[in-house]
Please model this.
Amino acid sequence: MTNLKIIIIEDEEYKYNKLIEILNRILDNSEIIRAKSRNSALRIIRDCYQKNDYFDLIICDNYMPLFDDSSQLQPCAYDIINYIRRTISKDVPICVCSSEEIDLCNYDYYIKYDSSLSLETYVNEFKQIFSNINKKKKVLSKK
Model:
């Protein structure tokens, strides 16, 4: 798959690098943007959508700081996902990639993150996600 725009919302450097390695095995010529906190993620997503610059996939961890310069972690995925669904787009695919599943949240995919698992495990899971996204071929719409 090529020419996808993806945002990875992940504060942890090791996990972010692992996700990049996984995506690079699957995708060609895709734009990957990173946000390290809840507030920077919301700002980036809002600014892109205001310019009609849509994401093909949002990958979101659960625990992260509220601000880029903070080290205090909080469960933020619920806030991010609800904001996206209410004010940005109800169609954009969202994948929660976290060590724990989030209840009562409107995401499309969940990948249980465990640093001890092989890259191939995650490559196969993301391939399935991209296959599903490609099959749907939705026109992403603003709310």
Summary: The mean pLDDT is 91. The radius of gyration is 14 Å. Residues 94 and 108 are 5 Å apart (CA to CA).
